[in-house]
Each structure stands twice: as C-alpha cells, then as structure tokens.
Amino acid sequence: MNAFFDMHVHSKFSIDGVSTMEDYCLIAEKSGIRAICFTEHVDFNSEEKNLSIVKDNRKQNFVVEDYFSELNRLREKYSSIILLSGIEFSEPNMFPDEFALYSSYPFDCITAGIHHCYNSVFPGAGNLSVSKAIHEYYQIMQKAIEFGGFQVMAHLDFPKLFFDKWIINNDVLDTILSI
Ligand SMILES: [Zn+2]
Question: Which of 112, 116, 134, 155 has the fewest CB atoms in 10 Å of its CB?
Fold first, then answer.
C-alpha cells in the first residue's frame, strides 16, 4: 500500500491559510493520506508580520500555545492520521533571536522559506530585472542555508510564481544543493 505524506500544509494559523487543521484531517481521512505536517508561516519580514509571541499575542495568526493545543486535540480525535508539527520560518538568518525562540518549541519539522527581497515581498518593489531578482533570491537562500538550524528549505522554485521564465545559473543551484 502506498502511504502519502503531505509535509507542507498551511492552515488558518498561517496568514495565507484558508482551511482549519480539522478540515485537513477530514480530507486526509477520506483520501487516505497517512501524515500531515502543519508548517505554519512565521514571518518577521513582512508588512503583515507576526510580532514576537512575547510582545503581542493578538497581532499574529500563529500563537504557538494555541497551535499545539489544537494539534493535540486533533491527534486524539484523528488517531489514524499522523499529525506532525512544524513552521515555515521566513529568512531565519535575518532574525536569529526570533528563530532561536521558535526553534525552542518541540516542532517535528522546521522549514525555512525565502519570501522577501530588499525588505518587501519577493520580487521586491524595486523593479528589478527578472535575472537580477532571481539572482538576489538565491543569494538570500544561500545565506539562510549557511545559517542553518532547519531541516527543510521550502520551494526552491518560488520565483516561478512570479515570472514566466525562470532563469537560474546551474552553478548557483549546485552550490545551494551541496551546502
Ligand atoms: Zn513559503
């Protein structure tokens, strides 16, 4: 029997999530998905940023305590599905203190994601050429990977969402993959 795992899911605990964790459990149950990892966005580099959990619980979607309490409730209710905990932390190297704080929680999978360029959402506000924007994207990704501390780098091909053509220098990709 094939066992399908979905290791990158955003629920309503993420700024861009539209479904509850329980919605995902119901779908997984019906479609035979064996495991889900809820990798919610934690983002300190955005206009819609999540402020520090210490500073203000009300201004963010992702409140760690609420997240784990809902996850644990669902783990009991849907015991046939493996429910894993995770985050997708934007540009961890730029926010080492915040990253250390979030990493101190018992997440099963810490994912990093690169979403920003020059302090705004990729491809940035500066009207960069396609090749310059993509170059910049992978420079930032390389720095994040060198910083480390996570298990997965999300969506290596993220710039594809914004450009028809996707130009990447193979040397850059080789460097990133080898690190
Ligand atoms: Zn992402």
Answer: 155
